[in-house]
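lol so apparently i was supposed to do this last week
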Amino acid sequence: MPDMPLPQMTSLKDCNRVWINVNLATFDPTLPDAYGVRTQCALGVLNGRIACIQPMSSVTATSLPYDVIDGHNRWLTPGLIDCHTHLVFGGNRANEFEQRQQGKSYQEIAQKGGGILSTVRATRVRSKEQLIKSALPRLEALIREGVTTVEIKSGYGLSLSDEIKMLEVARELGNRVPIRVKTTLLAAHTLPPEYAGRPDDYIDLVCNEIIPTVAEQGLADAVDAFCETVGFDLKQCERVFRTALDHNLAIKGHTEQLSLTRSSSLAASMGALSCDHLEYLDETGAVDLSQSGTVAVLLPGAFYYLKQSRKPPIELLRRFKVPMAVATDVNPGSSPLASIRLMMNMSCILFQLSAAEAVAGTTREAARALGIIDDFGTIEVGKIADLCLWDTNHPNELPYELGHSPLQQRILGGDIV
Ligand code: NIG
Ligand code: FE
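anyway here it is w/ fe (iii) ion bound
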């Protein structure tokens, strides 16, 4: 990790590396347009951070250091951030895909012991190395599209040792391939079979053993809970969130996905970083998110896969200025879709986001959702130089055309990887 932020502009000459002839979609919120556009720039990196942004008109050959990369008028955006994934899991659920095509619902399948629990069985019997091997192709797909930071949740272990195994796998993935990984403990995903009929006893385990151990071992950056009839009720989620906060872990929730539970208001009142899904969120919930600065994470892949008819209330979120992020939710049941650009597109087509909102949702707002906005998510002097260079005429092409990748360079801490 690069060292201290650079509060002041460094001269290009003193930078380690400079990109010249680049257009920037900075997403700097102080700039007037939604993309934060600065055309025809030079961008310099020092010690892994953005150290200088200057118009090309003021650049001369003698003002440049040795290491110069010509961007040929291509576009730089912040590196993409996928702020909600379950990309570590055993097996797959193609059989449930078929059942759902025959008319069975996600909830029905879950109630019969399938759904999340079938992935729990498949995850528990796999070794760490097997889980790493099966997760890598999904992660590599995200990397090929320009993702530089990914959040990975546990939640298919549901015992102390299996949740730890999943978090260790998630962390190890960040050592195997060049991407930053943020981990989230989702022990409160669903009730494991050995606790059937005893949800409060399982929440005791989560709060008395799993959260404290995971916190002590530094394995998670945040704690999540699935507040739903097939997950946990408000009281149980509140206990999980309270315990997390007591252990200095950030909180976030799977809230209002399948019904209105008021879990978004609960999470917001406790200072959650984000509330995710939100198809059933109402005006009160939107106001509560707005007041706490909690990010609304939209997951159009799950909405699409579950053939939901009710959309998250985008107009309300806009009206109350709730920041909106967009993520893949990669998981074997409701969103087996490892493509952040597909999610940008779906958020536009299915949820009527603007192209600018979709790209901001996978950069600046996703950084906010992970609590890393001070260092990531926009192109501003002082931030870590995680960037993507795109062969496009404008960043509005990112949610527009799919099937091939215009990504030219993925830049992590100023290095092309
Ligand atoms: O985000 N909603 C709960 N969890 C996941 C689905 C997990 C699964 O079906 O395996 C989600 O949609
Ligand atoms: Fe999820």
